[in-house]
Specification:
By secondary structure, the protein is α+β, with helices and mostly antiparallel strands. The protein has one domain: Outer membrane efflux proteins (OEP). Helices cover about 65% and strands about 10% of the residues. Helix 1 runs parallel beside helix 5 and helix 3 runs antiparallel to helix 4. The relative contact order is 0.14. Keywords: Coiled coil, Signal. One of its GO terms (molecular function) is efflux transmembrane transporter activity.
Length: about 425
């Protein structure tokens, strides 16, 4: 009579093929990414930071330009020439060469310089904020790449453990101690583990590609050696009272207030002084000319621009108030998340240790025939879940540190900017 257990060799062959594919899927990586601290030193070359630097330089150039006085106007006027009667030809002509200079009264130049300085200060603060945000983005991409690599290695271990359990189940099936369905279940679990490994590999490769792009590395990243997610955030790091976003909002409010002053000054008359020399051809004589001119604000008193500047100031004041309210709440929330993530890391580490011991005992019991395959599968799934939870907890801790560092105006795991 044919034995009902003739099919297991197919399972053994399938397990061998999966093991061989696993070995081929993991080449030796030889180009690890530089440590996060090294990459952090190059964050000033990030596109967002370079853009902020250029905008700051532009604002400083406008300050220099605001200090410059307006150019004088040189004018040449000829009167009573090439007409009719006594004014025929150029004999009775009067020629005037004059120089006119705008006086910039009422504090026009000072107000213009104040606005330019305020805008330059805002641009400098935006540059600092861009530097902090670039550092945070780099830290997040680095941590995600490291977490993806760990999940890939965990998927490899999970496949190895699943294959070992499948081989143990196959042995029991061949000995007649387990039904054929256990062998089929082991084969299905091995296929599922292999699919999870493929997915983890794709996620790892994508994370490495993002890190290569964000860090602007010349060669593709193929591994992480210096860990970031294992680093404990420095508890003593304390930023200033105002977050970078609040400081930017304060600078924008101050600039808006100075624009009101300059718009009010613009409503006053423009005063210009002129001096020149007039030539009288008929008398063969010359004389000096003096003049003073000003605009009469009869129709245009710049009221629209003044009202617009006041409205923009109110908007900037509202943004500042909102930024202050959100900053305090965000800082408290970030501190709470960081403390919670530290506790979660400790808890998941303890969970991994317990799950490893539980799986070890389950495997011993399964090999001795005292524990069923379902119990072994459950303990294995708990171990895999615990290990992935430990990675997730560490990644959450890095994200909490990134949020808190951004609110404190510093680089993650670094000093205050």
């Amino acid at each position: 009579m044919p034995s009902p257990y003739r099919r297991p060799p197919r399972l053994a062959a399938g397990c061998a093929m999966v093991a061989l594919a696993t070995a081929l899927a993991g080449p030796a990586w030889a180009d690890p990414a530089p440590a996060f601290e090294i990459l952090l030193q190059q964050v000033g070359a990030a596109p967002a930071t370079v853009e902020a630097d250029a905008l700051r330089d532009a604002a400083e150039a406008r300050v220099r330009q605001a200090r410059v006085r307006p150019n004088p106007t040189l004018a040449l006027d000829v009167e009573n020439a090439f007409g009719s009667g006594p004014f025929e030809g150029f004999g009775n002509a009067e020629t005037t060469l004059g120089l006119t200079q705008e006086l910039e009264l009422w504090g026009r130049r000072g107000a213009r310089v104040d606005v330019a300085r305020a805008e330059a200060g805002t641009a400098a603060l935006r540059r600092d904020l861009a530097l902090v945000e670039a550092a945070g983005r780099l830290a997040l991409v680095y941590a995600e790449a490291e977490a993806a690599e760990r999940r890939f290695h965990l998927a490899e271990e999970a496949l190895s453990v699943t294959l070992a359990d499948a081989r143990a189940a196959l042995t029991l099936v061949e000995e007649g101690r387990e039904p054929m369905v256990r062998a089929l279940q082991g084969e299905s679990e091995a296929a599922t583990a292999r699919a999870s490994l493929d997915e983890a590999q794709a996620e790892r490769d994508a994370a490495f590609a993002r890190l290569t792009a964000i860090a602007m590395l010349p060669t593709p990243v193929t591994g992480i050696e210096a860990s970031l997610i294992d680093q404990v955030p420095p508890a003593s790091m304390v930023g200033g009272d105002a977050t970078p976003v609040v400081r930017v909002a304060e600078a924008e409010r101050d600039a808006a207030e100075r624009r009101i002053a300059i718009e009010r000054i613009q409503s006053r008359p423009d005063v210009s002084a002129s001096v020149g020399m007039r030539r009288y051809e008929a008398e063969d004589a010359t004389a000096l000319t003096f003049g003073l001119s000003l605009t009469l604000p009869l129709f245009d008193q710049n009221r629209g621009n003044i009202d617009a500047a006041q409205a923009e100031y109110r908007a900037a004041e509202a943004r500042l108030m909102s930024a202050r309210q959100e900053a305090q709440a965000d800082r408290n929330a970030a501190k709470a998340r960081l403390n919670a993530s530290a506790s979660r890391v400790s808890a998941t580490d303890a969970g991994v240790a317990a799950a490893q011991e539980a799986y070890r005992l389950s495997r011993i019991g399964f090999d001795a025939g005292r524990i069923s395959q379902l119990e072994l599968r459950s303990s294995r799934a708990a171990l895999i879940s615990a290990r992935n939870a430990a990675v997730d907890a560490r990644l959450a801790r890095v994200r909490a540190e990134i949020d808190l560092a951004r609110l404190q105006g510093r680089a993650p795991f670094g000093a205050v900017q």
